[in-house]
Amino acid sequence: MAKMVNSRIGEQGRAKGPIDKAMEVLEALVEPGGPHRLGDLARRTGLTKPTVHRHLQTMAEFGFAQPVDGGRYQAGPRLLGLAAAALHDGRDLRLARPVLAELHRRTGRLAHYAVRHGDDAVHLELSDAPPEFRMGVPPGGRTPLHRSGVGLAMLGALPPEERDELLDGVPPEAWAAHPLDGPAAVRAVLHDAAEQGYAVDDGYGEPDVRSVAAPVLDRSGQVVGAVGISGLTFTLDPESVRLFGPMVRAAARSVSAGLGGPAPVLGVVDPAAGGGPGSWPGERG
Predict the structure, then answer these.
(1) Element holding 143 (H helix, E strand)
(2) Which pLDDT score is estimated for 85?
(3) Alpha helices in the chain (DSSP H)
């Protein structure tokens, strides 16, 4: 019998070529928990060990991968340098970093910024974390849009047709044991987010973790990313959400304004929540 080869189909319905496979190896290489063994990389990508090894050798020649003891591999210096340069030059990230620092200072919660890639939220920047909480997703990590506060915020800012296509395309098994058990439940959450101007992730991605997030838009009104805060549910309770939600919304609008998007507006906090105004430096009333 002839030996079977990897013949998985790409996202656009075509057989994967060498570049597709190299990108999969590269993505697996930078996942948390490295350095990674060859067998682990092969299992994550679904490629054969010889194929993965061949791509790793080529990447090592160009400085994108680096072999270490025990037959393991990690990201190489050239890849790290390119990543640092890309992050430094990102205008949205340059605008988001001081906003995250201020949001962390004002709320005491971990603040973070994410962008969208397909049906995932990619977490790019995290503020300092409070002692009691460390985010389960590291910088560069991904979460499905419907399983994170920043993802829900970006989903809510998409055109309805695109949003519906994404939600309807989630495999049925992905809803198993999920607090939001289908597209209708997500749409209900997004309806509330549209009224409030910020989305709430009530343990949808991580148990006992709550997040509040709002979208960042560019001058054309297209979603660029999302700003959010996260914390354990007992430190980010419903009262805190009512207090901090407008701050998160205003922070995201501050980044949007720097990109030429909608200008920030004054966020109003329910006085019954015991909080002060949810305004942000530079907002207009």
Answers:
(1) strand 142-144
(2) 59
(3) 18-29, 38-45, 49-61, 77-89, 91-107, 149-157, 160-168, 183-196, 238-258
- Mean pLDDT, rounded, of the chain: 80
Q: How far is the C-alpha of 163 from the C-alpha of 160, rounded, in Å?
A: 5
In the block, tokens 């509040």 appear at 212
23-32, 198-207, 236-245: least confidently modelled range: 23-32
Contact (Cβ atoms closer than 8 angstroms) between residue 209 and residue 112: no
For 20-30, b/e burial (b = at least 16 CB within 10 A) is: ebbebbbebbb
Contacts of 216 (CB under 8 A, 6+ apart): 92, 96, 113, 223, 224, 225, 226, 227, 252, 255, 256, 259, 261
pLDDT in tens, 2-56: 333 333 334 444 567 888 888 888 888 877 777 889 888 889 889 998 998 999 8
Beta bridge partners of 144: 120
Q: Report the C-alpha gap between 270 and 171 in whole angstroms.
A: 39
Write the CB contacts of 76 (distance below 8 Å, at least 6 apart in sequence): 59, 60, 62, 63, 64, 65, 66
pTM of the model: 0.69
